[in-house]
Amino acid sequence: MPHLMIIESNLTDTVNEARNKGWLSAGETYGSSLKASGSNVSFDICMPYAEGFNLNHLNLSSYDGFVFTGSSVPWCVDDVEAKILRQTLEKMFELGKPILGSCNGLQLANVVLGGQCGPAPKGKEIGIARDINITPEALSHPIHRGRNQQFSALCVHRDHITKLAPGAIISASNDHSPVQAMIYEQGNICFWGMQYHPELSLNDIINSVSGSTKLFNKNKRFQAKLISARENPAGEAAQRLGVRGNDLDPDVHRSELHHWLKSLVRAG
Prior knowledge:
alpha/beta; Rossmann fold; nine-stranded mixed beta sheet; two-stranded antiparallel sheet; 9 helices; globular
């Protein structure tokens, strides 16, 4: 049974706000989706932005893999405020164990590996990332197995990768963000990451755009469109948002999580 550490990339106040509303935190949401993708999974959550966090106190050797969540912090992963998050990933890279990251987690890995990130020139990509294409280099890789070669996915982000890390491979791309997913498998580092959020549900996206944070707030009309799509994720309302076919079927939308967990079992 894989035993994972999930790194919550949000501030403590954000985590507490979610819990006060009866929502799961980003780390808890990821853990729930990983369990749904592979029932024999256990996990712990650590919070590098929490007061008193000490990276040296973590017993990292007891874990089979690590997962970095998305984040609603107002800074980019290369800013001084994100130093502790970068140090956490660097430490985990040293162990040579598989690492998965979504959104902020993808950007973080790219920066630590020598790439660059910044605000997307086309602005925020919120709700549905449309017309994502699996690249020829990734067609034989398991990361996107089970998805259509062109697909849509749930997303909510402001920043994206502006310069790919040396040695990394783009596995999925669209017009908004050329790096929608990335693989880095060099030396003892094995990282899979997505700019979109395979761990989220439409309900999670609705919560993100209706919360108090100003980072991803959207107008009421957009929220209503998402709610309509939630009622029938393969229907007309979802199609108007750019959803393709069965892309939001939970088993399809969590494809990357499922295959990453299978890779842990094979490695073990």
